[in-house]
Amino acid sequence: MMNAGFRLPLTIEQAEFASSDANGRASEDALLLNFDLPIIAMPEFFNVLPPDEARALLLAQVTAVLSPETIATEDAVGRVTAVPLVAPHPLPQFRRSTMDGYAVRAADTYGASESLPAFLQVIGEIPMGQPAHLSLQTGQAALVHTGGMIPDTANAVVQVEHTQVIGDRDSVSRGQLAVSSEQWAVGSGQSPNLQSPISNLQSPISNLPYEIEVFKAVAVGQNVLQVGEDVSQDAEILPAGHWLRPQDIGGLLALGMMQVAVARRPCVGILATGDEVIPPAQAAGPGQIRDINSYTVAGMVRQAGGVPVLGGIVPDDFEALYRAAANLLAACDMLVLSAGSSVSVRDMTVQVIEKLGQPGVLLHGVATRPGKPTIVGAVAGKPVLGLPGNPVSAMIQFDMFGVPAIYRLQGVKELPRQGVVWAKLSQNIASESGREDYVPARLEDGPDGLVATPVFGKSNLIYTLVNADGLIKVPLNKNGLQAGEWVHVRIF
Predict the structure, then answer these.
(1) Which pLDDT tens digit goes with each residue over 3-29?
(2) Backbone angles phi, psi at 102, to 5 degrees
(3) What is the DSSP letter of 159?
(4) Of 88, 213, 287, 314, whose CB has the highest number of CB atoms within 10 Å?
(5) Is the pTM value of this prediction over 0.85?
(6) Which three-class secondary structure state does DSSP give residue 491?
């Protein structure tokens, strides 16, 4: 029997555990038992940092520069520009009409109204895709179409809805101004309905000139795109390190830029570790689990513009893991080790990363849940990550560190914004101040907008993510979120 005066030294964590019951209340027996116990402050294994600081620490070490390659612009969506792109000419290259109507000298329309219209003589039409050779004098106009060139002597365009042809319809070629049966008739003598759009302007005009009434004045430059209004010549249209979107491709092709220099796609080596891990195609025996992290991470690598290189499954053997990691890192721009990052006697990931080169492990532990034991490191400018084995933890942590690292390897200056929506929280989410929590959530339509329902589950259950639409972030310094709060949900 233990001597009443004899006490074993406890760590702080053991003392805290011993002094609380299952409900977190102080236990009298525990307090009596541990009275006067010496408490030893043991060094914590994790060097825990908040996520933003940890990410900045990693990205500061990512110095590997990927060589550029030139590809067809039409195939460049999702790639990253390697050099600044400069406009070879202005856009548009000529003055263009933004409306169907009449090119005019704006001063000829000043004071025009429905009760006192301006009268102009139409002397011709500017065909689409053709230069505007007409020269307008005072009181003259030319029929133009949306996107068509306007004469040098015109400085505005009157919408066709604000005009009416004077005289019998036969004074111009039939069908030239076609309107729907419910709209006002051209030349009918009725007052025009200024809100009713004309459905079509046809051409050519055979009976010229003819006269129109203008019921609304226009200002200089109205309904006209000026030369270089979209892009001026020699302007930098996209900087280096820009993630190319569909609209960017359209802008480049509008300038005739058929090829673009982009950063090479980073190769990301992925190793799974563990004696219990088997390939997905293999039937799992007692104590075995299929490798899914390699494939979920590979999918995220592709989404970020990288090329995954699967290195297979390595048993819990230091030399085998080191050789596989060293070979894969030498062939790739980044290395990811799945599993082996939890605190255990079989943990070799830290030692392997340290042996791979400098600076090695930057930190072991991030102030998040799930995924606290994540290992963040770098070797000779290449990012190296040790992810937890639990699939939810692995995906969240790779999204937090791996995806930004892939973008940085391609030279991206600012990370592309992911889809974020507001939703009303359906139930409370508990958390602890001092760490960020990421909770999977399902989105549903509600009477006031989207409703976010947390999908609670252990971090080793992949279907907590399969059944979710996104992640709710609980900020670092909050003790949780209350039902009814509006929260940001980051869409997968």
Answers:
(1) 433 333 333 333 333 333 333 333 333
(2) -130, 130
(3) E
(4) 314
(5) no
(6) strand
